[in-house]
Amino acid sequence: MGGITIISFREFRLEDKQIIDDYFHQQRYEQADASFMNLFAWQYPYEIQWAEEDNVLYIRSGRGKKQFWLPPFTRHDGSFTKGILRMHEWFDQHGYPFLMKGVTPEAAERIRALCPDCYNFTPDRDNYEYVYLTQNLINLSGKKYRQKKNNLNHFRNQYIGNWEYVPITEEIFDECLAAEENWYDKHEGFEDDEELQGERQAIETVFNNWGILQPTGGAIRMYNKIVAFSIGEMLNDDTAIIHYEKSDPTIRGLYQAINHEFVVHAWSHTTYINREEDMGLPGLRQSKESYNPVRYIEKFEVTLKEPGKWTSD
């Protein structure tokens, strides 16, 4: 152990974006973890850090003994096998139990191939990401979308001439942040909810660094006031990902309206929309399921079972 160098992790800085993006563009990733914006915005609430070594990108997170890594991201000439071995060294050095999270089926298959008898793979259902066909979200056709369409039509008819969809620009940042504050004010127990506290910090980080992060955003203004907004970006060549969406919960159909208008105006050229995970929250799961995902981005937690024989890349 004495001869092993320790990987040096650091925080995400705006000037790191090109380096991180280069790793994510090496292949077609479908998960929210493969987004510099997401990692940068959530790094302080989730204590996310990164390191780079021999054309392998490492990302770790967690507090106390609950430390975990994402599977390594490699450039074309980087070694996935070496990345996994370096993970083991780090966990051994620090005395933490080995834990990988955010492991997609493709990554799980590669890890199993390295050592078939080394790991336990546990489905992490709360972190499955929901993927929808863009045209389904635009057309809302058929019986399975009837309630969505009814709510959307109610909103349009109830407030005809009194609302508009607008793209998010610097001129309306303050209005969007006021709408965000209103949403949290109406959420009971917000002060004690670490997840929501972290989300609020992440959203404000995105607004404060909009010019460099370059997200796409849309909002709905009613009676000259922003009441809903949504923020996303392109995740890969045919998929947009929605990172944040806030809507006044007291206005019937507003949630359906911002969902629909944002997709129509910003993402109609895409094939898929990734709306991320439900975090195990029953209400959020019901909402995401009700839009009829075409598939999920499955995730696994990976823990150590027993030593085995390794293979190379």
TrEMBL record:
Domain called Phosphatidylglycerol lysyltransferase C-terminal: residue spans: 32-300
Domain of life: Bacteria
Name of a matching Pfam family: LPG_synthase_C
InterPro entries the UniProt entry points to: Acyl_CoA_acyltransferase, LPG_synthase_C, UCP018688
Alphabetized PANTHER family for the sequence: DUF2156 DOMAIN-CONTAINING PROTEIN, PHOSPHATIDYLGLYCEROL LYSYLTRANSFERASE C-TERMINAL DOMAIN-CONTAINING PROTEIN
Protein name in UniProt: DUF2156 domain-containing protein
